[in-house]
Write a structure and sequence with these properties.
Blueprint (H helix, E strand, L loop, with lengths): L6 E5 L6 H15 L4 E7 L10 H15 L5 H4 L2 E2 L4 E2 L6 H14 L4 E7 L9 H10 L8 E7 L4 H6 L5 E5 L4 H23 L3 H15 L3 H11 L7 H7 L4 H12 L4 H16 L4 E2 L3 H5 L8 H7 L4 E4 L2 E4 L2 H8 L15 H15 L14 H33 L3 H7 L4 H19 L5 H12 L5 H10 L1
Parallel strand pairs: 1-6, 1-7, 2-5, 5-6
Antiparallel strand pairs: 3-4, 8-10, 9-10
Helix pairs in contact: 2-4, 7-8, 7-9, 8-10, 16-17, 16-19, 17-19, 17-20, 18-19
Length: about 475
Amino acid sequence: MGTISVCSGSKAGAGKGKTMMSIGLIEQIPRRQSGSTIMTYFFCQNADYELNTTESIIKGLILQLVNQQEQLTASLRRRWDTARRRFDEGITSWRMLWHIFLEMLDRCQCQRVYVVVDALDECEDEGMADFFKLIVRTGLHQPSKIKWLLTSRPLDSAEQELLVGADQVRVSLELNLKHVAEAVKTYIACKAAELDRRQSYGPKLRQEVEIELRNRAKETYLWVSLACKRLEGVRRDEALKTIRELPPGLPAFYRRIFNQLRCGESEMVESCLRLLKVMMLAYRPLDVREVCSLTGLSDREVAVDALVDRCASFIKMRGTRIEFVHQSARDYLAGKGEYSLPDFDDKYGHSDNTLSCVTCLQDGLKVNLVDLPRPDSTRDLVKELQDEGKSAVLAGIGYAATFWVQHLDLAEHTLRIRNALSGPGEISQFLRTKLLEWLECLSLLDQLPVAVKAFQILSSAADVSGVFIRLLQLLSG
């Protein structure tokens, strides 16, 4: 690996294995290098607001560095205001974080540092173009020590120009399909072996399954993964038929699965569509305990795990979190790029999300939500109470408390929201009766700064009703 380029950029379409390649390099490079090597990395995820900004990328890279070399925390300590017990004001800026990161790279006591940033196309920050420029202009000043690997789907021409230079190498997986095809072939063999152990295929059927998968995969890891996921629930005598019915290519695959999803018992179909639309509009993956608060489904209507299982080609469960199987699944539901927008009948938009969240908070909030013994309880005591079982209360309403105003901001001018902001409306009543309880909940979630932005949005929305302005006057008086 000594000849690896100073800054490599890997690009390819959805599901071609960019992230798998990144994971492989992260695992293998340290094994092949001497002990004086550091690997720092970050995986962008568009569906999570904490993982799709320039600031989050740099914070993640900094965290990886200080976890491996503790002395690098000095770069953060000297920016800590001891008297005010907080960082200097500018540290929240991604540009300041970039300078801290470069300082840490300079102070690293090692011969080589590898920096991997995967799925840059999933970062929607407006500062990405400037971030690329800084990587090229200041991030490559020690080419013998610092090696960068950036992966992405094809970027637009402006961003591509930023990563073109004598010291940089761009690798297109689309132009190296021979190598990709061999890797996908190996992956198919591995997945077929897993299915054989699960379903007792036997040598002949296993080989036939491998051939069918190779013929339809189009060198796409994700297609193989999704197809094999469906085969897990199919009897061995229907395996080949199931594969042959799956169209090759991700767009056609998603379209077929979505059409199949819409067939069946109406209540289940309605619940699945509602869950998918909610997931598409959510600012982060949802905890399973948050689904009912956001979808408006009661616990008795349908089991959440049954919904996720039915939507398995689009979403999956990781622990208690529900997330998309891949960014391309979210893109399909949003109608982005090569994907056509599926028909949701204009249901379950930001208006629905806003009102579902408000209803959840109206019903779930109370004074002293987690039964603190004293008003001046320390954060350690709060954590102890949560560990004893009160965390379930916060987990169920955490998303609703944190993001309901952001959904309102995107739906403010709809008739439903205007009515909800009026005197007898749901939002008006919530602000009149549960404002302080909401602020307490945000404090318990360690999300109180969210209220500052929320007040700005609500003050603007209150131009429709005047409710929030009157509430602010009451509080200030």
